[in-house]
Amino acid sequence: MDINATLLGQLITFLILVWFTMKYVWPPITKAMQEREKKIAAGLEAADRSKRELELAEHKALAIIREAKLDAAQIVDQSHKRAVQIVDEAKANARTEGQRILDQANEEFAREVSRTRETLRKHLASLAIAGAEKIISRNLDPVTNAALLDEFVAEI
Fold first, then answer.
1. Residue partners of 42: CB distance under 8 A and separation at least 6
2. Distance CA 130, CA 128 (A)
3. By the 8 A CB rule, do 127 and 156 touch?
4. Chain segment 7-43, per-residue pLDDT in tens
5. Global confidence as pTM
6. Where are the domains of the chain?
7. Cβ atoms 129, 155 nearer than 8 A
C-alpha cells in the first residue's frame, strides 16, 4: 500500500478537524452536559427532599388528627359527665322541692283538720245546748227524755 498525498492530506485535515473540535466545540458541549447533569441531580435531590418532607407532614397531620380525636373524645366525655351531673342536681332539687311542697300540704291539711275540728266542736256545743234546751223545755217524763236524747244523738 502506498501512502500518497491525498491520504496524507486527508489525515492532516482530519487531525485539524479533531483538534478544532476538541478545542472549540467539545468544551461547550461537555460544559452543557455537566450543567444539565447537575440540574437533573439537583432536581432528583429536591424531589427526594420533597418526598421526605411530605412524609413528615403526613405523620404530623396524622398526629394532629389523633390528638384532635383524643381532645374531642375528652370533650364529649366531659360533656356527658356534666350532663349526668346536671340531671342528678335537677333530680335532687326536684326531690327537695317535692318534699317542701308535701310538707306544706301536710301543714295545710293539719291546719284544715284543726279548723274543721274547731268548727265541729262549736257546732257540737251549739247542738248540745239546743238539745239541753229541748230537754229542759220538754221535761215531761223519762220516755220523752229518752226519745229526745236519741234524736239528739242522731243529729250528731
1. none
2. 5
3. yes
4. 888 999 999 999 999 999 999 999 999 999 999 999 9
5. 0.44
6. 41-155
7. no
Question: Cell numbers at residue 144, please?
Answer: 220523752
* 16, three cell numbers: 485539524
Please report the DSSP string for the chain in residue order: ----HHHHHHHHHHHHHHHHIIIIIHHHHHHHHHHHHHHHHHHHHHHHHHHHHHHHHHHHHHHHHHHHHHHHHHHHHHHHHHHHHHHHHHHHHHHHHHHHHHHHHHHHHHHHHHHHHHHHHHHHHHHHHHHHHHHHHT---HHHHHHHHHHHHHH-
Q: Using CA atoms, how far apart are residues 112 and 101, in angstroms rounded to an integer?
A: 16
Q: What is the rounded CA–CA span in Å between residue 22 and residue 15?
A: 10
